[in-house]
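Pasting as-is:
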Amino acid sequence: MGKRTKQYKKLMRAFEHLGFRQPYQLLMTSDIILDTLKLELMTLFEKTLSCKNLKPMITQCCIRALYDQNKGPNRDPAIAAAIERAKTFERRRCGHLMDEDALPERECMMSVVDPKGNGENKFRYVVATQDELLRERLRSVVPTPLMYVRRSVMILEPMSHASARVRNREERAKFTEGIVRKTHLLKRKREEDDDGDDDKDGSGSDPDDGSQAGDDKPAPSESKEDKKKKRKYGQKGPNPLSVKKKKKATDQPKPSKPKPSEPKPSEPTAETSTEPKAKRKRRKKAKTTEGGGEQSEGGEAGGAGGGGETEVATAVTAES
């Protein structure tokens, strides 16, 4: 049931593209009213068409056929019930008089659905009938949804080949119209852009302004396609995101800090800077003379010098 309902919804959306609008106008014949006396007819129509707003209609000739079947001494109560149900529907005036010019149901339905005889459902009727010959004739009238009842189940026929051809032709026409319209808009926009380029170059200047270009002639305007072709690309460089930024150079370099373990050789220590170095006393050795004795250069000896020489000579002899 769910699959069939989804299929019927899709079918009615296709008919809506051909001009059908809610509430649908439902045109019925007398035979479908007789076959659905024990069923909720309007509930079946609403579930099948997925629409709660319907306009059920019946022609004057169809209700006339019900009255003709109820004539005579042996009247059928089912026909009387069908007449009472048909009275609740809207009467569609077909223009055929009840007594003189009454037509059979089949001819009346064809004249109402296709009034001009050109195979077009002008008023967009949804036809519900049990007559197979009538449904066969209405399949050539586009677009016409057809319904009938089989074993207490309402069935909506698929779209006929004639209606499908019309739908495909209209969809193709809409598609082509959209392409033509888009092409026209693009062409118009391109012309406006070309006119704007001419005005910028000076060709569209007003002669009353008194401004003359002199000997300089404006260059001819070029279209966007020519500009794209003549465009020259420069040398490709590295990716700016991958290049590392250079550090800003300062005016004065910062002095490097010396290591604490290694003092600067140029800087004097605190002791050397404050106190001068003490001179080391020079000690001279005694020189030996040819006579075998040593003679000191200092003035440590006495005035005569005799005593010192004897001491040195004594020390030399003792060593030998």
